Records
---
Amino acid sequence: MIKIIKNSLIFICMLLAINSYASEKQLLASPDHQQLIMVITDNWQVDHGLLYTFEKIENHWQLVSEKNPVTVGKNGLAWGVGLHHKQQGQYKKEGDGKAPAGIFTLGEAFGYLKSVNTGLPYQQMTENDYCIDVNDSPYYNQLVSKADVGAIGIKGSTEPMRRDIHVNGDIRYKKGLVVEHNRQNIAGQGSCIFMHVWKAKGIPTSGCTAMPEETITRLLAWLDATKKPLYIVLPKAQYLLKQITWSLPAI
């Protein structure tokens, strides 16, 4: 009887794994998603990688650009909360210095300028705008304005969106976009995940993906919200492991 129960549990786990693979494969194959950004790092621990972009043409992913240098979390990667199913391994936590791995949708673009060339919705940031990284805040993982939530609403946040004003001329959020990690805003599971300009060549982040300004300028101009772009971040070994099961394009 114990052996039968054990075998049944193994069979159920196998079915769940197959269903997980199928759903992610269907996601990448869906005609709804026509653009893909993919970042591959050497392993879970490194703080840098390469960015590739793809566009779907006749139901096949076609390479648009490749091997664009980026940095990720200063402590590497950990699984994030995105469109992929639950994975085995370490998951991102608030303040761990890791960027989230997995499959994610993209939100709005943002920056210091009045407007930028992009097919995403764009919002110019002001000195009142913050992203809230305080675990017990009701605004956790949300972009808010001090004008709307008051001083108490932004208390403790380390993410002013006009870093040029609040952090000695910092250019990192001059141009950026939101990675929709932890969309349910669950406290402690990671907040304020962006793609943005890097502080300087090769400098890693606290959990975002950073790149030269010219790279993100091209990226923003290429992205089109109507094509429902996806963002995938994986270490190389995981990419190779999931290439077939998730229907990932070859690089």
---
Amino acid sequence: MTDRSHNFGAGPGVLPEPVLLQAQQDLWNIAGSGIGIAEHSHRGKVFDKIILEAEDEARRLAGIPDNYKVLFIQGGATQQFAMVPMNLLPAGGVADYLLTGVWAEKAWKEAQKFGTTHVAVSGEGSKYTRIPAVAEITYSAKPAYVHLTTNNTIYGTQWKTEPPVPLGVPLVADTSSDMFSRPIDVSKYGLIYAGAQKNLGPSGIVMVIMRADLADAAPAALPTMLQYRTYLKERSLYNTPPTFAIYMVGLVLKWIRETGGLAGMAERNAEKAKLVYDFLDQSALFQAPVHPDSRSLMNIVFRCPTEELDTKFLGEAGKRGLSGLKGHRSAGGMRASVYNACPRGSVVALVDFMKEFELANPVRAGASGQV
């Protein structure tokens, strides 16, 4: 569609165009019901079918075992920072955290409000430009769970595979910015959560995949809406959920399946990221601060030698219809988020513009910037 920009926003991020076109129709009248999806009761047959199909699509895509539940919860990943320790960290227990960026830090700091935590490893010494090696991880004696953030949107790093954890200890993962961008072995985790607004749908909903037995140990005195038990028992329908967001997640999951599933998505995402990284690695103007073995396939960070050039690049990129490239306020520079729905054509357009910008702005001898 010619009237749409190339969207590289970090979140809410780009959505698949077929999904958006279907949603346009269903906002007016879904399934011949004469009522739009945003108007349907969450207790009615139309929405009941929608939420069941969304769960079924997730199960088929990831091969989710029967003893795991798929939940839809409000509050964003930030609420999960609290819900996880509230439900999984017993009195006197210790929760281990792997710190690889701002969001991992936020999850750790939130957990400290509910019990004892232990930092098993931190990438702060490298300014979060690389994922720590497994040999650097030191777990506590008997953690209640281990928490990691699989992809770090601000710094552009990503765990390539799950780090080993002590036997029998649940691995908890914030996968908000790379969920269903590649195959995932759910059985390696006790609980997975992902804000939808990167790869799964619009903002307003979190998908949680958890081993059902883990919900049993939560204190009974927890507020009803902060207990995983509530969502398990009521199929995420204890109260009125964000029905439109869940509907959109279902459409996106169907789109992923129809376009090759998680294996096909991983292949396309790797190809898109390679186009950008290959250019960055030979560029005389642009700098890529992340160690090559830690680079994210979702969020590609880069910068020019000076902030002035960064500003110029962003201004000219906007005029070309390249949107959402400004880096996070805590990191500066630029960031291209090439999520599942980001078309290859958008990535090609970005690289072509970067090449033009470099030719028009040759690096002066002695020019340098902070990486």
---
Amino acid sequence: MSIAIIFDLSEQIDDLVENKAPFFDVLWLYYKNFVLFYGNLFSPLLTFLAVIFFTSQLASRTEIVAILSGGISFNRLMWPYFISATLLAAGSFYLNNYLVPKANRERIEFEMQYIHTYRRTLNQGVHKQIAPGQMIYFDKFNSKSNIGYEFTIEEWDGITLKSKLFANYVKWDTNTRVWTLENYYLRTFQNGEERVTEGEKRDTTFSFTPDEFALRIDDIQRMDVNELDDFIAEQRLKGSPNIAYYLIEKHTRNALPFSTYILTIIGVAMSSRKVRGGIGAHIAAGLALAVTYILAMKVSTVYATNAGLDPLYAAWIPNLLYGVLAIYLYSRAPK
């Protein structure tokens, strides 16, 4: 993580200096949470390398042979690894679902203020459901000034249109928390009759705010497990096209801690035998396996977001594949 901080700082230093980021905030709000987020994200792989390094040292000193020769079974030898993996997996589960999201709020807010100041502000062709039977449309929406152009909102009762409101220009007032419509045109339908209302200006409230149009995919990293569940339910109701991304985030938080077990078993099975090349050979093989594991995670994620694969399967397929490999290696390790 120290190396990661050095690389990140070399990349962000220009933005931090240009935007005059306070030194204390850089350390406490950004890099403290940077280490917490990425350290937890890669904790199964870091655990995997630690297991290989430690077990390879035992094997190179012929200590594992001595343990097994003393009457200790290979299964009994694995108990300390299982206990450690349980503690690490439980800690990772808590971090993923509760503590890291809180840390991400500070980190992402810092990035928005001092690093990613170019955040996109213009959304075009916004079309979404905001409540059952309520559909809205913006030709353009500027999330910096909270102004929308060519606005339409429709209310439906099943397949029957109840009302349709047009406005050339709408603006959100952050103080009063109301929308101001300009050059509006309202059509209402009741009992087969149409009623039309026009005007130049009107203040009103809707069940949505500008924050919904400025949402980025990585903003869900700031939500704990309960907030994420509520957010996904809300986005399903609104017909969001990004549901797959949100579900992948949810399922990955649960799948990632479980991978600690799988990689621990693989690490012990790979490095418990004394081989020519010693620790270096084991670590090289472990790194190669870690790269393929990350690749499998990325491929399954792409399939979920672009090819319709269920996000639950996308999050767990790498664990299932490497779980089978772990069982095979574990069965052969005592021999």
